[in-house]
Amino acid sequence: MLKTKGYLMLGLFSLLAVALAAAACSGGVSKSDIVALQAGVQSKADAAAITAFHNGVTQNQADLKKDVLALQEQVKSGPDLAAVGTLLNAKFTTFEKGVPLWDIQPGTAPRMRELTESFNLMWFAAQAGNWEFAGFEVYRAGEEVKGVLVTRPGRKEAITEWSVPNLKALEEAVKAKDKAVFEKAYDSAVEGCNTCHTKSKGGGFEMGAIKVTRPAAPLFPNLDYKGQ
Ligand code: HEC
């Protein structure tokens, strides 16, 4: 019995020895191997990150180069003069409140004074049969209206509605050198001045307060309306 036990123990020890020897031979299960493997995995991950970082830097460099080249092209081709010109033109041709140069331009009232003068001169020239002078005043009235169109675009519609048909009728009467036709056209135009006034405000005041009539006296006593 004892003998049998002794053999069994011997057998077990020999098995353990063989297993240990096998483990020592393969070497893959030691702690240091696992640590080394971990380090390997980590260093691989780092390598990937470094590659990504490197690629990023390369891309940035490429982008930067592209930007610099584009800038160089712009500098070479000079400033966009056409665009600058368009901007400047818009500033000078379109009324803009708050721009000092525009704010000091005459608005409607000074043009109205001029219209009053032109209509006075026109009347006495026509009465004197001076159609050249009368025609010049019809032309002047048209120029005076143009000023309003530029500096008071809000009044454009109302003033055009008046000026286009009325100045045309006056022009035709002057061309025909017909006093009766002229007076009729003149009275219609004056009626138009007043119609517009009843519908307009100036500086908050009702312009219906201003009534235009045929002139009672010439504005300038130092003019001979008959001409030379
Ligand atoms: C578009 C409508 C309209 C028409 C047409 C018109 N007016 Fe006026 N008129 C006005 C407005 C608006 C004012 C006030 C202007 C302002 O506030 O700057 C005015 C003001 C005036 C003034 C006062 C100007 C001053 O400086 O005190 C006179 C005078 C005048 N108009 C005469 C005329 C005569 C003459 C005609 C026709 C030949 C005429 N108007 C046609 C709208 C009109």
Description:
There is one protein chain. The protein is mainly alpha-helical and 228 residues long. It contains 8 helices and 2 strands; from the N terminus they run H-H-H-H-H-H-H-H-E-E. Strand 1 (201-202) and strand 2 (205-206) form a beta hairpin. Helix 5 (108-127) packs antiparallel against helix 8 (179-199). The protein is rod-shaped, with a radius of gyration of 50 Å. It starts with a helix and ends in a 22-residue tail after the last strand. A two-stranded antiparallel sheet has the order 1-2. The protein has a domain at 107-209: Four Helix Bundle (Hemerythrin (Met), subunit A), CATH 1.20.120. Heme C is lined by residues 107-109, 112-113, 115-116, 119, 155, 158-159, 162, 189, 192-193, 196-197, 200, 202-203, 207, 210, 212.
